[in-house]
Structure formats: C-alpha cells, structure tokens
Amino acid sequence: MDDTTTTFKNLALELQANLDKIYQNTPGFIGSRVVSFGSGSIIANFILIFNPTTSLSEIEAIDIFRSALTSEAEITSGSGLFLTSLPAFIIFLPCEDLTCENSGTCIITSDRSGGECRCTDSWTGDRCQTSSNSKLTELPVNCPDFDRTIGTDPGQATYTFSPDFGADDVTKSVDGYRYHGGDVSVNITLGGSPVGSGVSIGTHDVIALIYDDELSKTCTGTYHVQDDESPFIMCSNLTVPFGNVVANYDAVVSDNVDEPSSLRVDFAPKQPGQRLDPGVNEISATVTDSAGNINSTVCYIDIQMTELPVEILQASAAYDGNTYSLFFRGHLKEGLTSLNFAFYGDVIYDPIIVNGVEQFQPADLSPGVNNIRIEATDGVLSKTIQFVLNVTRNQPVNYELTGNMVLARIKGIDAPFTQDLLDDTTTTFKNLALELQANLDKIYQNTPGFIGSRVVSFGSGSIIANFILIFNPTTSLSEIEAIDIFRSALTSEAEITSGSGLFLTSLPAFIIFLPCEDLTCENSGTCIITSDRSGGECRCTDSWTGDRCQTSSNSKPTSIAVIVGNNSRCTFILHPHPDLGPLRARFEKQNGDEISEQPGSCWAHIYVWDKR
After folding, report:
1. What is the pTM of this model?
2. Of 379, 395, 441, 489, which is the most exposed, with the fewest CB atoms less than 10 Å away?
3. pLDDT per residue as tens digits for the range 102-153
4. Cα separations (Å) of 295 from 149, 325, 595?
C-alpha cells in the first residue's frame, strides 16, 4: 500500500491513535508509528518507541496489548479494529551500542536499520571524534546580505559609504570554531573605494573580506545608489497693476544632482505667457528632476486691472454726400502690447450713444457738436468712452467701395439665412454685422486711407453680406486691389483671417460682382464662381447638366446662356452655350413700353434667344 494515499494515511492515523491509547501509561513510552501494510487481510507493521532507559520486554508489551482487547479481539472497546492474532514484538534499541563523542547525539537512521551520530559544527566522523578545524580551507563564517538600494546624502550628489556591517556582526558557520589569533577582522570596499568615500549615483559592487590570522572568506553584494531627494522650488507672489499676461513666473529651483536649467518646471492652471483672470490667481508650480523626484508649491498672482484698457485712437465723420457716419478705432493704452495683455474675447463697442440717442455702429452724426458715449467690453472687462466730435457742413465726400460676399459657415456651423437678418434692429443682425465689420477692419486696417467698414444688409443664398469699405477721398484703391488684399487674408479653407470662424464660398465682389444673385441652379445644383472669377456658374449633380442644371444628363441641353450683370451700371456678361451659335438679346425698360436690343440707362428684363 502506498504511504502517500489517503487510505494509507487514514488507517495509519487510526491505528496509531489506538496504539498510543494502549501504551500511554507505560513508563518510557514516547509514541507509535505505522511503517507499512501488507497483505493477508491487512498486516500492519508498526513501531513502539520508548526512551533508552525503558526496561519493557516483548512479553510485557504483548500482555499490555492483550489486556486492551475485548472478548471479540477488538483493539480497545469501540475502536472497530479486530485482530486475527496478537502482535509479535521485536525490541529495537539502535543507540544501545553507539556512543557519540564531543556532544554528538545518536539518532535513528531514516530506514530504521540502526543509529547514527549527529555531530556539532566543530566535529565530524561516525562518532563525532574528528575536529572539523583540521579540514577547513575557508574561514567558517556566514556571508550577510550586502545588496542595498540607498539614497544620496542630504543635499549632496553622492553617497558616503558607511556599511552597517563590522567585525561584531560576523557569525560563525561552524559551532565551536575558535578564531586563530583570538579575533576576526572585516575589510569592506564599495566600487573599489574604502569606507567613508563619496560614491556617485549608479550600481557598485561591494566586496567584504572577513579574516582571522590564518583563514579568510570573501563576501560580495551590490549597492544601488540613487537620487531620492526631491528638488527645491519656491514661487513668489506677484502683484500686476497693469496688464494680465505674465511672461515668466518668479520660480526659483535647485537640486542636489541636476543643474537648475535641466529641471522641468510646470505651472497650472495657466502657463507663463497665458492670460490670467482679474483678481487673485492661484498658480501651482511643480519641479521634476531627472530621477523623477517631484516637489511643488503654490504662489498667487494678483491681476489688479478692472477696466478695459482701450482708448479711441481716431474718430472721424465719413460723408457720402447725404449722411455723416461715425468711424473710430480703438487701441490699447500706452505701455500695453500683446506681450503683457490679451483681451478676454472680441471687443464690442456697443451701444453707441450720440447726443443721447442709441445708434447702431457706425452711428449717424449731425452737423455741429456731437456728444458721443461708447460702451466697450471684451466680455469680462468693460469701459465707458466719452468724447466730443465736431462735424462741419463742408465735410469732403468720402470714397466708398461697395461689395458683397457669401458666408458658408460661421464658427463651424452652416450659415442658413434667417428672416431676422433682414431687420437691422435685431440682435442677430447686429451681432453678425459687428463680427463681420471687425474682420473687415482687421483686413484693411493697414490700407492707406482706410477709415472703416459698414455692413448694409444681409440677403439669402447661405448668407449674402452687403457691405461698404470707406476710405478718405484721396485714396487710389481699385476694386482689383481691394480683392487682392482680401484674398491675402484668407486661409486655404477660405476662412476670413485665421481663427475668425467665418468661411466664404467665394471672394467678395466689389461694385459690380454679384455672381449668383440672378442665377438659380435647379435640381440641387450649386452656384459657384467661375475659375476666372468673371461670373457664376452652376455645379450640377451627376444626373443633371446645363447652365442651370435643368437638363437630364441623358438628353440634350436646352439652356443657351448665363447672364451676370449689375443694373446700377447697366453692364452685363453673356455666356453662350458652347454648342450654339451667336445669340441675340433685348432689354425692356422699367416702364415696360420700350424694348430694344441695346442697353439703356436701366432695364427690368433681359431676353436672350438664338437663331431658332
């Protein structure tokens, strides 16, 4: 039977328990042990263990066993173990004839065939009769664990080697060994440097020589010296009476290993050079060294500016022969630039009060003295600006360049036309007009003679914005030059100045350029500007063709021409279909009773036909 099985273990434990119970009161009894089981019903081989001084004989052992049986040969009443015969005992005294010298101890061999001596560390041999000192070639001491991870000295880039092991800490590996010369010594180096040396950051080998007058032993280990000290940082509080941008927070840093210039310093929530909020701003400053040690502190920056720092640089009255309009430019106060101040949002000059009457920008003025009050704000700071502008009746007529553009998107959102854009008193009209005027002013601000811009109206077609650029009378700017200036302000995605969020479907048309005003594209077609920018044309879907996308792609086109024109100058451009011959046109006067084939001063209708 396998002594590792549960069956063996359970039966052996049960039998041992009954044997222990039978002999527990026998002088010198220590315990029992089941050695094996054999066949023949079950033959149990066991050992009763007594101390060496016992005088129990085999016959006495059998008599004790017999007295524990019931009449039915059960081992102790109620155990359930029945015998077919009494056990046969052989007395085994393995250490009776074995004497162990020099404090050795006799123990039974693992196969229980006899006894053997267990010697102390200083002796050897079958009876511990031979000194182990006579065979040693190495000092019989234990090597300690020399592996360490240790930090640099406070404030230093090195570690001063000071091991925590000396002669008093040496332990013998052989009991009873006597050091030659009466004492033991220890010599330890770290990376070749003696105790007390400064050791740099990194991994270094420890070598410890432990010795007496005759024998020695070398023990080794590894020291990992690392920088575990956090760098120093201090951030001073600042008071900023003028401006809201601080280019460099006053943070002082140092480290026991790294140079200040190599330390990484982070600020939150605002980095140096970013706009701060009015009032006290809490800034967290964090420094990190090359070992990853971190330290942080907090400083406070007080932005004391409470008023929008703008002034009116220039205010003038622009006269178009009928109306005097107010135009002005605001600028930052002296001493402020983009390096120390940033607006919290777009600056809006609204409302404008002229002689006590609120007006939309640009406001209308009256000849004579005009008392003007302008409320300016960037969404956080605000300021009331007041000044007087005297308008004379002999004001020269200003140069006006009228134009229009088509807005496709406003700040990433499609720009559908809404009815409230027809009313210049609505908030929708005013906000869009102010935003567009601000961008037009930004585009043309450096153009000689430029005074300002004015949005006149909005029309449908996404959103068509009609506006005026106003220059002083001496300007020489042409329509082509105005378009070129505008083109240079566009991004590759047709955004009006980078970051404005206003996107166009075409460049603005000045004076006579209204490419899509009179062109209707059918069947989901879209009007676009021609590549030479001389007019408009329809971009059709795959299923349609023709100048207005009115013809199925499977039939012949029926359109014959595209007309682009402007009634105010009585000019037009006629684009015939390439498959047709010469075309004829006639113009009907507005009164409806004159029809000719030549353009007059104005017309209400244009009719175009071919020879058919």
Report:
1. 0.48
2. 379
3. 888 888 776 666 778 888 877 777 788 766 655 678 999 999 999 999 999 9
4. 22, 60, 89
Q: Tell me, what DSSP letter sits at residue 245?
A: B
Per-residue exposure over 462-491, b if at least 16 CB sit within 10 Å of its own CB, e if not: bbbbebbbbbeeebebebeebbebbeebbe
Inter-CA distances, 48 with 34, 67, 90, 381, 539, Å: 9, 17, 10, 102, 111
Better-scored residue on pLDDT, 270 or 250: 270
Site of tokens 């062109």? 519
What is the DSSP track for 147-193?
-EEEEPPTT-SSEE---S--GGG--BSSTT---TTS--EEEEEETTE
Tell me if 173 sits within 8 A of 120, measured CB to CB: no
- The rounded Cα 133 to chain-centroid distance in angstroms is 68
Write the CA distances from 416 to 89, 454, 538, integer angstroms. 113, 21, 19
pLDDT in tens, 534-576: 556 777 888 888 888 888 876 544 444 444 444 444 445 554 5
Report the amino acid identity of residue 560: I
Q: HSE on the CB side for 173, CA within 13 Å?
A: 13
Whether the per-residue pLDDT at 331 is higher than 70: the answer is: yes
| Beta carbons of 121 and 173 less than 8 angstroms apart | yes
**pLDDT tens sequence across 399-421:** 667 777 788 777 777 778 888 88
CATH superfamily of 398-511: SEA domain (3.30.70.960)
Task: Measure the CA–CA gap between 87 and 43, rounded to whole angstroms.
Answer: 10
Q: In terms of residues, how long is the chain? A: 612
Can you tell me the distance from the alpha carbon of 282 to that of 298, in angstroms, rounded to the nearest whole number?
7
User: How many angstroms separate the Cα of 379 from the Cα of each of 359, 382, 560, 590?
Assistant: 20, 7, 54, 50
CA distance to 215, 424, 499, 525, 531, per residue, from 503 (Å)? 91, 22, 10, 20, 19
3-state DSSP call for residue 419?
A: helix
CATH for 232-303, options being 2.40.110.10, 2.60.40.10, 3.30.565.10, 3.30.365.10: 2.60.40.10
**What SS3 class is residue 48?**
strand
Token pair of 82 as six digits: 């029945």
205 phi and psi, to 5 degrees?
-85, 135
CATH topology of domain 310-391: Immunoglobulin-like (2.60.40)
pLDDT of amino acid 579: 46
Q: What is the pLDDT of residues 174-233, one digit of tens each?
A: 877 888 888 999 999 999 999 999 999 999 999 999 999 989 999 999 999 999 999 999
Evaluate whether 148-226 and 310-391 have a shared fold.
yes
The number of helix segments (H) and strand segments (E) in the chain equals 4, 41
- Tokens (6 digits) for 185: 């010594």
- Note the pLDDT of residue 467: 83
User: CATH second-level architecture of 148-226?
Assistant: Sandwich (2.60)
Backbone angles phi, psi at 276, to 5 degrees: -105, 160
* Cα atoms in the 13 Å half-sphere on the side-chain side of 12: 19
- Mean local confidence (pLDDT), 274-298: 95
Q: What is the pLDDT of residue 168?
A: 92
